[in-house]
Amino acid sequence: MYTKFHYILLIFALCFFGCKKEEKTDSYFKVRKTLEKVLEDDQKYRQQATTDWWKEQGKLDRKNIKIVTKIIDSLGWLGKDKIGKDANLALFIAIQHADKLSTMEKYLPMLKEAANKGNAEKGQAAYLIDRVELLNKRKQIYGTQYSIKENGTAFIENLIDSANVNSRRKSMDLYPIEKYIRMIDSSNSVENTQKIR
Length: 197
Description:
This protein is mostly helical. The protein contains 9 helices and 2 strands, in the order H-H-H-H-H-H-E-E-H-H-H.
């Protein structure tokens, strides 16, 4: 038989656990909004044609990396199921554009693990792996990092075992390298590929 005390206890428990759930949802909402702003700021100056865009962008990148590393260190690598596609992309893009190799190397294993668990795209891991390899004066594995010739066409250099690059790219859910280069070269796709370069 339930007493008044039992009902009060039940109401308290429902309120307590309901409030905790709402608090968690709210915190993911705030995280999502924060990361969506990080993604927006990451592209603020990169798409401009000015010669000194990198000065202002560098300031934003340093601010963004502090925000993103704090989130990853406290909550882990959150998947898009929790924070949405853009916020999830912001986790990767801020690490990819970090100004310190040590930061990229610290978070690369976390990105790989997140990709294995479905909390990040495999292609994102490929991009960061290649960037870390090149910054360490080694050859890239997946051919994600490109340069632009004076005539405006893209080319991939410093690539290990180029004959088998497409099988490696396929394993990371990336387009064949020929299609990737065509996408970069086409004026409509340069902006899209630039985001994850």
